[in-house]
Amino acid sequence: MGANAQSGSGIEMLLMMGVFFAIMYFMIIRPQQKRAKEHKLMLEALSKGDEIVTGGGVLGKVAGINDNFVELTIADNVTIKVQKQAVASVLPKGTMKGA
Fold first, then answer.
1. How far apart are CA 70 and CA 61, in angstroms?
2. DSSP 52
3. What pLDDT shows up at residue 10?
4. TM segments (predicted)?
5. Dihedral of the CA atoms 82, 65, 52, 56 (nearest 10)?
6. What is the Cα–Cα distance from 80 to 70, expressed in whole angstroms?
7. Which of 12, 23, 83, 95 has the CB geometry, 3.0–4.6 Å to 91, for a possible disulfide?
8. Contacts of 75 (CB under 8 A, 6+ apart)
9. The CATH number fitting domain 47-98, selected from 3.40.50, 3.80.10, 2.30.30, 3.30.530
10. How many CB atoms within 10 Å of residue 11?
11. Tens of pLDDT along 49-84?
12. Where are the domains positioned within the chain?
């Protein structure tokens, strides 16, 4: 009888671990993958003239794009180059006129 009680608790523990990993997957891993996919699609859709904000809070208009970098115009005659991954979001057109 003691052996059956021992194996029953082992199965329960395995079941609890499975439930824990399922919860972790749906609460942490899956949403993170979804955000990464959305960010990748946003970067692929970038085009010249888009107004963006970087992760560091720099607001600028896209002046040029290559494989890894984006050139931003942040003021008259001031252009900087940032990594594509630094782009946090694309702003609605006309946002920079008010800034």
1. 10
2. E
3. 86
4. 12-29
5. -10
6. 8
7. 95
8. none
9. 2.30.30
10. 9
11. 999 999 999 999 999 999 999 999 999 999 999 999
12. 1-45, 47-98
Residue 96's pLDDT is: 80
Alpha-helical (H) ranges within the chain are 2-24, 30-44, 95-98
How far CA 80 is from CA of 21, 39, 58, 74, 98, in Å, comes to 44, 21, 10, 7, 21
pLDDT at 90 exceeding the cut of 80: yes
> Is residue 65 within 8 Å of 51, Cβ to Cβ?
no
Task: Please report where in the chains the tokens 């890894």 appear, as a residue.
Answer: 68
- pLDDT category of residue 5 using cuts at 50, 70 and 90: low
Alpha-carbon distance of 95 to 14, in angstroms, equals 53
